[in-house]
Amino acid sequence: MDSKQPWTYWGVTITVNLGAAVAAAFAFGAWQRFQSPQGALNVPYKGDGFYEVADDVGHIPRANAHMTARAEVEGRKVYEVVYTTGPDHFRIVPEASENPGFCVWLFGGSFTFGDGMRDDQTYAAQIVNLSEGRVAAQNFGVGGWGPHQFLAGLQSGRFKRAARCKPTDAVFLMDPSVIWWPSGVSNPWDTKGPRYQLDADGRPVRNGTLGDPDPYNWRRWVGLNPTSKGDALRLATAVMVEANSELKQLYPNIRMHLISYRVASWGVNGFTSEDLTGFEYDLDQAGIMPLPLEAVIPRYRFAQREYILDYPADHHPNAQAHRLIAEFILREIRSK
Q: Beta strand 102-108 with 169-174: parallel, antiparallel or unpaired?
């Protein structure tokens, strides 16, 4: 046998096996894409006319709208409520007194918007009612929104235009899954949402929408998330820090509060407890102190069913949880 033949044999073998591995990876990626949820608009009320496209934030409720939301699990009604928006496109909140002592702006997704809650049951509404009008509140939470909409709405001036009072405080309520959303992972309804990328200085820069073509992202083709866990954490942190900076520029004396809506027993979409602790630590170092859910609802971890809409189908906070969140926010802003 020619002395070169073994090397040729092994070279061909390695090449064939490597090619097979690459082909398998691409086949797996294609399968993953085929298996991925295709019904992006099956997310409640994203595609039924309650929402409209917005250039800055991707999607937003229609102004002056009424929408009956109904949820069932195996034929059992979980809730049937009406959502009402005002002329500013955001969910209505009771009017505060003429000269309130505080004004709090509330940001976030469906937890803040109040999925499954009547207009008067959201924690935004309960802040006003529990304070007997001495604290004004504006509900800037929208179902399906993440930190990227928080930043985009500040940069476009959307929240400032909707302002009914000068904010003394801002609250962002975040559950761990939302960390992925600025990267476009696990939020298929958000193709019109703002896409941010980090510049050379690590600051987020607006660059199109999350649904824009991304043909050079090799991670998609081998069945991986389009963004690594580390990159998702870095981007979400940078977006939150930039949004806080935007708020401070508009209102230098505003106080930022972030409620980290997580407990150790939850599944957190690939993030370990160490990942989330690191994320919260980085926010704290940037001047945004995360407030743990245990401070808001001490019994949540061991009595979760008392505070959610339906177990195990819907983990959105129920009216009792909204009341406890409102009471916590009132204590926080008054203590300052």
A: parallel
